[in-house]
Amino acid sequence: MKTVDEERLRQMKLLLLEKGTIIMPEWAATALRDDAALKGELTFIRTGSHSMVQVMWEPGAWVRSTVEACAEREGLRSYDTALPQAWVDNMASRGFGDVRGHFVWSYDSGNIFGCPYPITLDGRRMAGMAAGTI
Questions:
Q1: Mind listing the pLDDT tens digit for each residue in 87-132?
Q2: CA–CA separation, 59 vs 39, rounded Å?
Q3: Which of 21, 23, 44, 114 has the most CB atoms less than 10 A away?
Q4: Distance between CA 115 and CA 109 in Å, rounded?
Q5: Looking at the whole model, is its pTM more than 0.85?
Q6: Exposed/middle/buried for 45, CB within 10 Å: 0-12, 13-18, 19+?
Q7: Which residues lie below 8 Å from residue 67, measured CB to CB, with a gap of 6+?
């Protein structure tokens, strides 16, 4: 089971990938500095607060897309960045707008048809709302 700090760090990493730059506690920035999973360029800038650091991430040239980097960070082994158009249209008709970039189609669950897997914080929110848990 993950500790609260591990989960907070995982959420900050997702947000960093999604936004490209965030301000985070120094302990988290230190943990990210040696994180090979980011596979890109990290820049650290001290803020006015001694305990906060601005972190900027610019993916290396070999990182094909932020979507793929997020999926790999989630530990997905078998996924597709192309989403079924019928599912995308259904989500849009339900008021979720453009869901591309927030989900991948995952086959890790053992279902041969796959299922949507949220890879961003907004994707998690949309998934929760679509499932009726939020």
A1: 999 999 999 988 887 888 999 888 889 999 998 888 888 999 988 7
A2: 7
A3: 114
A4: 8
A5: no
A6: exposed
A7: 81, 101, 104, 119
d(C-alpha 128, C-alpha 54), whole Å? 29
Query: What letter represents residue 60's amino acid?
Result: G
Hunting for tokens 């082994």 — which residue is that? 77
Contact 119, 103 (CB under 8 A): yes
Whose structure tokens read 């506690």? 25
Indicate the SS3 state at residue 67.
helix
Contact 53, 26 (CB under 8 A): yes
Question: The tokens of 78 are what?
Answer: 């078998």
The CB density around residue 19, as the number of other CB atoms within 10 Å, is 13
Q: Is the dihedral of CA 66, 68, 72, 75 positive or negative?
A: positive
